[in-house]
Amino acid sequence: MSEPVTQVAAVEVRGVDKVFETRSGNVQALEPIDLTVAAGEFVSLIGPSGCGKSTLMRLVADLDEPTAGTVEVFGKTSRRARLDQEYGIAFQQAGLLPWRTVAGNVALPLELHGEASAARASRIAELLDMVGLADFADRYPDQLSGGMQQRVAIARALAERPRLLLMDEPFGALDEMTREKMQTELVRISAETGAAVVFVTHSIPEAVFLSDRVVVMSPRPGRIREIVAMRLGAEAERAERTEELREERVFFDMVTAVREALHGGSPIGTGARGVETR
Amino acid sequence: MSAGAVTAATAPGRPKGMGPRTEATLRIVAPVAVGLIVLGIWQFLVSVVGVSDYLLPSPVSIIEELIASWDSIVQATLITGTNALIGLVLGSILGILLAAVAARWRPIDRMSAPVVAMLAVVPIVALAPVLNSMFGADSQFGRQAIATLASFVPVFLNTLRGFRQTVPVHRDLMRAYAASSGQVLRTLTLPTARPFILTGIRIASSLAVISALVAEYFGGPRGGLGSLISTSAASSQYARAWAYVVASIALGLVFYLATLGLERLLQRHTPQARRRP
Amino acid sequence: MRETESARAGRGASAASVSRPGSRYGPGGPTRPARRGGRRLATWLWGLAGIVAIALIWEVYKLLGPADGVVIGDARVLPRTTDLAMPHVWDMIARLGEPVTRSASAQPLWLVIVLAALSTLGIAAVGWLVGLVVGVGLALVMQRWRIAEWGLLPWIVLSQTVPLIAFAPVVKSWGSRVEIGAFEWQDWMSVALIASYLAFFPIAIGALKGLQSPDVIHEELMRSYAAGYWQTLVKLRFPAAVPYLLPALRLGAANAVVGAVVAEVSTGLQGGIGRILIQFAGQASGDPAKAWGPIFGAVVLGLVAAGSVALLGVILGNYRRTEEAS
């Protein structure tokens, strides 16, 4: 592990592959993959079911271990990065603890890592403000809508000011309108915090709207087919992205580009569109 | 995300680096090993440490006693087993019938549910002494009635739940077919409830044996396993008492395995995983 | 021993397909949220109606049934209807208020029963606590090490299906013969031991199921927080186990009462409800209504034990939010 010199990459994936051992034999989930995510960069992983995009994200999070290759997060091993809490994570389901209030859920990582209670309270207030749930601090998850739950989950992921945010289809279970609203908010939040984001999704418009680069993957075994750079604006302009962008020409051009990258080569059919369920 | 799903299904719990085959082997080896270790410790305590007979006779002496009084053990097992079987059959029939009635008429349901809920937590065997005087002290019927009541509770609860499992889409379908209530019962309600009924009977089978046996501690005619266990213990024949205990364990196992077999037999074509036990 | 099913459900992978516990004992059960006060009252009234209906059936049969019962072949399938065999319901209730014996200084029957029930309740509570400690301890071991689960769980499940309570009379022989230092084995400990023994099985299985119940997503969240075993246990596993633990504890309480009553009878321990059950039944030929007193006592005892656990469930309400939704 070399000392970070100037701007160390948020994620550095080198030659990573993953084989799962199952009852019916081995499954090659990922072919050797190389990928670098710069600090502050927003990268989406997109592809049909079974292309290993979630697996790749889980390897970065050290929820699974690669069969071969190395994953570095801010120059550390992924395990070290997890122990040092270098990233925040959000899943497709909000995954809130049902017996804790909204504030209690956001407080969970802070509690686990021994944050003093006064500092904790102010941080929670700040976070709930950021996701627009300040009035709901004392509610329980079952009293919230799906979109609100997901916002709590994002607040929770941001609780410890991570420099990297890992998101596994966080808006996958939301309806289209809530989803667009959440995307706009995520753009704002990520601009505010300056965190790098690795975002797994099925939705082409979502990936295009959010990302600096879109990594297009293909299945069986999972591999990177193409990385499409978005011309919608570099990091500096991320905050400029607004609802209007969704109706601009350049947006559709990029959607087409990603779409062609996804479908190019093999007949993928409808696979890219369906909503995956865990 | 098929790969992700695979992880979720297999990874948690299984120690790292253990293949599915190792797991299958260990799942069998581990309980057998535990059983042997316990037996070994038991024998060791008795023959080496010298734990007295009244505390715990050695496995060997229990087996000797089992062989020595084989005839009377079989006799006693038959008596208790018959009581339990009659109780199980009657209790199951009553349970299913009353559950059907309760599923059909709401007032019956509302009246019976709390009573059955009470029955589930009160010591039913306490009724044994008065049942003996109601049916005559020479009769086994009191015990059979206890076993009936004890089996009735889980069969009723499970059956009632089973009758409520029909999904709305199926009911709508039946309505669209203009099916008569008899047809609905035959093609929809009963098949849906069947696994629940069978589960209820399986739970009841253990309870029937336990209650039939325990009821014997509360007086009534001698000759069953329960009364012989207490007589042997009272006359300090501990190995013999334990031999009867072993016989009652065997009886319980026979009942359990029989109902489990019945369940498997009748449920072969239903996907097991879907079922809420 | 009443609910072997939870045992089977506890086995590893099948746990996922198991319904949320709680609704097992119907509308009378304590799992319903308190806010439905009106419906709860209705439930009680209907339950009361059910009990009255049973009393009515009793009296109507007593009125119309043949004096020597209905005998088919050799077996009497319906009881005799004499006052000796089937006392009137009102006689049973009235008897509770009368003195227990004819002697002038005798206490009323209900007081004797209450005192005996309290004594049994105390022993059952000790048994329940021991069962709780052992059960949760074993569940923790089984949750932590898969190999322990594979080794122990089949035996626990199996032993729920067999009448292990049969060995109650044998335990009696331990009384006053076991001495470890200054500690001498008391008779009531035999009873508590059997009670704990019956209480422990459902608790162990319920606790294991509960500790294993957190969703994968929650476990991964804790992993992503680099939370250790104990942190995960306190923040995630125990809270998630509450909805599973409560029915198990209630079942354990009911089992402890059954175990205590049976053990009192089979060990002949004085002072408890089991003892007077037998004693008053022996006097039934002269005083048939008296024998019913301890039965009512046993019923109330079971309800009180299960109800105390239900009270615990009300206190822990916030940990049961998922249960209400389902």
TrEMBL record, chain A:
It comes from the Bacteria. One of its GO terms (molecular function) is ATP hydrolysis activity. Transmembrane segments: none annotated. Residues 11-244 form the ABC transporter domain. SUPFAM superfamilies: P-loop containing nucleoside triphosphate hydrolases. Keywords: ATP-binding, Lipoprotein, Nucleotide-binding, Transport. InterPro entries: AAA+_ATPase (IPR003593), ABC_transporter-like_ATP-bd (IPR003439), ABC_transporter-like_CS (IPR017871), ABC_transporter_ATP-bind (IPR050166), P-loop_NTPase (IPR027417). It holds the Pfam family ABC_tran. PANTHER family: ABC TRANSPORTER ATP-BINDING PROTEIN, TAURINE IMPORT ATP-BINDING PROTEIN-RELATED. This is Sulfonate ABC transporter ATP-binding lipoprotein. It comes from Agromyces bauzanensis. The lineage of its organism: Bacteria, Bacillati, Actinomycetota, Actinomycetes, Micrococcales.
TrEMBL record, chain B:
SUPFAM superfamilies: MetI-like. CDD domains: TM_PBP2 (cd06261). Residues 73-266 form the ABC transmembrane type-1 domain. InterPro entries: MetI-like, MetI-like_sf. GO terms for cellular component: plasma membrane. One of its GO terms (biological process) is transmembrane transport. Residues 1-20 are annotated as: Disordered. The chain crosses the membrane at residues 24-45, 84-103, 115-135, 141-160, 196-218, 241-266. It is found in: Cell membrane. Pfam families: BPD_transp_1. Keywords: Cell membrane, Membrane, Transmembrane, Transmembrane helix, Transport. It is a multi-pass membrane protein. Belongs to the binding-protein-dependent transport system permease family. This is ABC transporter permease. It comes from Agromyces bauzanensis.
UniProtKB/TrEMBL annotation, chain C:
PROSITE patterns: ABC_TM1. Keywords: Cell membrane, Membrane, Transmembrane, Transmembrane helix, Transport. PANTHER family: ABC TRANSPORTER PERMEASE PROTEIN MJ0413-RELATED (PTHR30151:SF0), ALKANE SULFONATE ABC TRANSPORTER-RELATED, MEMBRANE SUBUNIT (PTHR30151). Residues 117-313 form the ABC transmembrane type-1 domain. It is found in: Cell membrane. It comes from the Bacteria. This is ABC transmembrane type-1 domain-containing protein. Residues 9-24 have a biased composition (Low complexity). GO terms for cellular component: plasma membrane. Belongs to the binding-protein-dependent transport system permease family. InterPro entries: MetI-like, MetI-like_sf. Residues 1-36 are annotated as: Disordered. It is a multi-pass membrane protein. GO terms for biological process: transmembrane transport. The chain crosses the membrane at residues 41-61, 109-140, 152-171, 191-208, 295-316. It holds the Pfam family BPD_transp_1. The keyword 4Fe-4S does not apply.
